[in-house]
Amino acid sequence: MTTSKSREFNFTEVNSILIDVYLNKNSIEAQVNRILEHNLVFENKNYQQWLLKAVSVLDLTTLSGDDTRSNVRRLCIKADRPLSELNINIKTAAVCVYPSRVSDASDTINRMQKQDVKIASVATGFPSGLYDIETRTLEIKYAVSCGAHEIDVVIDRTLVLTGQWLKLYNELKQMKEACKDAHMKVILGVGELGSYENVYRASIVSILAGANFIKTSTGKEAVNATLPVGLVMCRAIKRCYQDYNIKVGLKPAGGIKTARDAVNWLILVQSELGPEWVTPEYFRIGASSLLDEIKKELKLLSTNY
């Protein structure tokens, strides 16, 4: 699993990274296009390998108001054998559920004796994050006590929009402490942050506060995961790795609808951060319907061999 260095940062040091950040929107979008153009995947066998990689990094997700124990049980079974009908032995990285459904996922996975499928839980007032910090940390502790291995916390986006970086940093430190041994994925809600500069700053603060992953979105915003935003977040990850030897992962979520979308994300991350980042330890895709789209593509490819 992903680990970030345990280090206390003086906020003056953190704040020094946040000033004078300027990102050119057109340049970022052009860079994404160049990366994809230079790494086109045409050959069927190569495309199939990218699709299988995408399945292996999926956080198979159900975050509906009508989630039941039986829904979660089916999700866990699918996560363990997502491509069983194609006779391909592979697992998804994790399942992702609400805190109230973590115990259902834990019971199912324990009965299946499949400890390599991780349980992730959203928390901290998902999806808005507009709750008191004490309430949010209690929700983390509850999810961990029910068996969650990973906690997808959501930040209060108003702190980013109003430049309250110290408060955001301190809140994330409290969330990290509440996670204990569980890994913390920090959801930025990029579609509500207003600018690429704010995405970059929020990424830096999250990483230095102890995030194991930074995650684009809740999936509930009008704009979710986009490749240009992904590049901005990759740049923040790279800076913290180069400057502080802190290595964290990236999780895009929301808006990744097609198999080609998933492959493009993998190509972007591998090109920007390196092949060691396109593993379940450092890269996840949060999705609910994407698996079915990937299976359709794999079935089509199998008929062409």
Automatic annotation (TrEMBL):
Its EC number is 4.1.2.4. Pathway: Carbohydrate degradation; 2-deoxy-D-ribose 1-phosphate degradation; D-glyceraldehyde 3-phosphate and acetaldehyde from 2-deoxy-alpha-D-ribose 1-phosphate: step 2/2. GO terms for biological process: carbohydrate catabolic process; deoxyribonucleotide catabolic process. It catalyses: 2-deoxy-D-ribose 5-phosphate = D-glyceraldehyde 3-phosphate + acetaldehyde. One of its GO terms (molecular function) is deoxyribose-phosphate aldolase activity. The active site is at 215 (schiff-base intermediate with acetaldehyde), 251 (proton donor/acceptor). GO terms for cellular component: cytoplasm. Keywords: Lyase, Schiff base. InterPro entries: Aldolase_TIM (IPR013785), DeoC (IPR011343), DeoC/FbaB/LacD_aldolase (IPR002915). Belongs to the DeoC/FbaB aldolase family. DeoC type 2 subfamily. PANTHER family: DEOXYRIBOSE-PHOSPHATE ALDOLASE. This is deoxyribose-phosphate aldolase.
